[in-house]
């Protein structure tokens, strides 16, 4: 529109990539959410080698401590949250490869 400078222009819709590049708060939020999702998803693959003794004894304790918050969440959370997590871990535990 004539007579409108950048300060008066209505805001344009900004997509997620633009937000990720320009907004520090959005970037850190996305990184934290991705890290939490990867943490939960990595608990399943941890169960399979630990169940079949593929993890050396010296590494089993530190790796077990890494997943203590996950195990507490599965045991103390409401069933709506814990049942899918337990199902996911049991899925990995029942793999016979």
The N- to C-terminal Cα distance equals: 66 Å
Rg calc: 22 Å
Work out the strand percent.
Answer: under 5%
Count the beta strands: 0
Shape: elongated
Provide mean pLDDT, rounded: 78
Biggest sheet record: none
The poorly predicted ranges are none
H/E series: HHHHH
In short:
The chain contains 5 helices and no strands. By secondary structure, the protein is an all-alpha fold.
What does this structure look like?
The protein has 97 residues and is mostly helical. It has a domain at 38-93. 71% of the residues lie in helices and 0% in strands. The protein contains five helices and no strands. Helix 2 packs across helix 5.
Features:
5 helices; 97 residues; mainly alpha; 71% helix
List the SSEs and their pairings.
Blueprint: H1 16-22, H2 24-51, H3 57-66, H4 68-76, H5 79-93
Helix pairs in contact: 1-2, 2-5, 4-5
């Amino acid at each position: 529109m004539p007579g409108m400078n950048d300060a008066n222009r209505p805001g344009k819709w900004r997509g997620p990539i633009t937000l990720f590049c320009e907004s520090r708060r959005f970037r850190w939020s996305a990184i934290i959410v991705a890290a939490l999702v990867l943490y939960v998803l990595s608990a399943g693959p941890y169960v399979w080698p630990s169940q079949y003794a593929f993890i050396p004894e010296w590494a089993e304790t530190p790796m077990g401590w890494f997943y203590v918050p996950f195990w507490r969440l599965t045991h103390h959370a409401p069933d709506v949250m814990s049942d899918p997590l337990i199902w996911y871990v049991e899925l990995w535990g029942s793999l016979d490869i």
